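A reminder from the course coordinator: this example appears on the midterm review sheet, so study it carefully.

Given structure:
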């Protein structure tokens, strides 16, 4: 048998492998450092991003500074150890595993330096370096030393901590400005409650604004949503394996977005404001968001109508086990027990809100004013052969303004026309059907035709003649290209018949 030792962890391989674990974005890694700062009673966290050219390559440096209580040398050294923490397995704050500082830092950079002080006269420093660890040069966390003034960042608070990342090789973006922009949005949402409570986060001197995914509170995004009923509260038994005992609350809050006010936004505006494709549940643990997704919905599938309401589920850290919180605090994997408790109410209310949205959109479409094209089509439909099987008669005009140029008392074989728009399940840009002597044309809001052409025009956007020509020609090219896909004689004959019928109806409408 070999006398060779086999350590539990092969450090040189572990340090490279652990860099790949856990952190979805640069913001989520920096959020770990902000967690530590707020848990150390900081009221202010300053994030600084800078670029320095190095042999023609842009090198980014990230510095996170707080005015918290600072760390004694022994605590500083422990904070840089993987699994080292004075709060290991604690459920009293946002942290619990002691992996946050080293794991988050080295997931983004090859070196992290930490400066901490409980008195401005003695600033202690230690570090971790991926290359030194991988080569075997660095086998233990260096014993903290007093940092020389010229080697340390500027100190301007009685106590605090500074974390500095250098040789940043895994940031989401290469430019400091781009990283800063992305950080502001993500951190504003993650720490919205802390910001609203008065704590400050700045990025290169600019204060981060809170971002409320429920659209209720003022911040960097839109506000104006309303609560849907009172928040639901569940008292959940704390798992027995924890030192804590008794119950802990889970609160579920729903909001409805103001459809009447925001429905006319363009698709680009809806995306920019986080309305479209934003349906889901915000998961808030110990006051900060750790996940967002389609949780506790049971059999309710996500639809476009669900963009118009939001949900938040909040809980304290002593329920981490039931929520299945990951050690990086970026996700949950709830237990079947918790799912059984929350899903019935959440799914029921989700169906209610979805139905409310459908009703509201239907009412808005009914009140839409008739367009000039609708009036012309209705006034000239009598020139066309009625659709097969239809017994449609001419509907009376809506008012004198829309009256056709013939005797209003005449009964003519013609259809009424109406346009509406909504999200369709299929990819077509429109659907048509006859309903109550009307041709109902539904335009798909999820199609580029609606976004780029119909929506701007219906909202009064000015389009120049070259642009209008381009739209018309692209529409015709698309029709012609689709027709060319027909290969069998029967399909070609059907396409020809449809083309001739469409051309004749268009000629009648254009007079």
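Designed residues:
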């Amino acid at each position: 048998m070999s006398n060779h030792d086999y350590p539990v962890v092969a450090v040189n391989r572990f340090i490279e492998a652990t860099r790949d674990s856990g952190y979805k974005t640069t913001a989520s890694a920096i959020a770990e450092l902000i967690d530590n700062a707020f848990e150390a009673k900081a009221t202010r966290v300053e994030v600084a991003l800078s670029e320095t050219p190095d042999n023609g390559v842009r090198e980014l440096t990230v510095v996170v500074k707080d005015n918290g209580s600072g760390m004694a040398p022994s605590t500083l050294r422990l904070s840089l150890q993987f699994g080292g923490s004075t709060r290991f397995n604690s459920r009293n704050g946002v942290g619990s595993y002691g992996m946050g500082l080293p794991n988050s830092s080295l997931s983004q950079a090859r070196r992290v330096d930490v400066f901490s002080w409980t008195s401005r006269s003695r600033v202690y420093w230690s570090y971790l370096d991926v290359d030194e660890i991988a080569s075997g040069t660095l086998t233990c966390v260096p014993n903290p030393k007093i940092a020389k003034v010229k080697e340390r960042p500027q100190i301007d608070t009685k106590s605090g901590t500074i974390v500095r990342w250098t040789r940043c090789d895994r940031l989401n973006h290469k430019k400091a400005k781009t990283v800063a922009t992305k950080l502001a949005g993500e951190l504003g949402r993650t720490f919205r409650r802390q910001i609203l409570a008065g704590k400050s986060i700045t990025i290169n001197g600019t204060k981060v604004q809170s971002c409320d995914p429920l659209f209720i509170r003022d911040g960097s995004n839109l506000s104006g949503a309303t609560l849907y009923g009172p928040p639901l509260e569940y008292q959940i038994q704390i798992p027995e394996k924890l030192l804590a005992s008794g119950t802990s609350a889970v609160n579920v809050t729903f909001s409805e977005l103001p459809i009447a006010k925001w429905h006319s936004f363009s698709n680009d505006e809806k995306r920019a404001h986080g309305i479209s494709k934003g349906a889901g549940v915000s998961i808030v643990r110990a006051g900060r968001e750790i996940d967002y997704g389609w949780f506790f919905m049971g059999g309710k599938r996500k639809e476009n109508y669900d963009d118009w309401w939001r949900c938040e589920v909040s809980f304290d850290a002593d329920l981490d086990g039931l929520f299945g919180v990951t050690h990086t605090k970026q996700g949950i994997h709830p237990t079947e027990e918790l799912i059984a408790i929350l899903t019935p109410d959440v799914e029921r209310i989700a169906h209610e809100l979805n139905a409310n949205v459908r009703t509201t959109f239907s009412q808005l479409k009914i009140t839409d004013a008739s367009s000039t094209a609708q009036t012309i089509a209705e006034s000239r439909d009598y020139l066309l052969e009625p659709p097969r099987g239809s017994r449609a008669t001419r509907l009376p005009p809506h008012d004198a303004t829309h009256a056709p140029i013939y005797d209003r008392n005449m009964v003519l074989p013609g259809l009424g026309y109406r346009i509406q728009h909504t999200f369709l399940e299929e990819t077509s840009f429109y659907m048509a059907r006859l309903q109550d002597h009307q041709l109902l044309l539904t335009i798909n809001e999820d199609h580029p035709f609606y976004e780029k052409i119909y929506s701007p025009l219906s909202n009064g956007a000015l389009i120049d003649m070259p642009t209008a020509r381009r739209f018309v020609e692209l529409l015709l090219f698309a029709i012609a290209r689709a027709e060319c896909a027909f290969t069998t004689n029967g399909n070609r004959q059907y396409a020809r018949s449809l083309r001739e019928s469409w051309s004749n109806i268009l000629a009648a409408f254009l007079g």
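The longest strand covers residues 44-54. The chain has three domains: 11-207, 226-366, 372-510.
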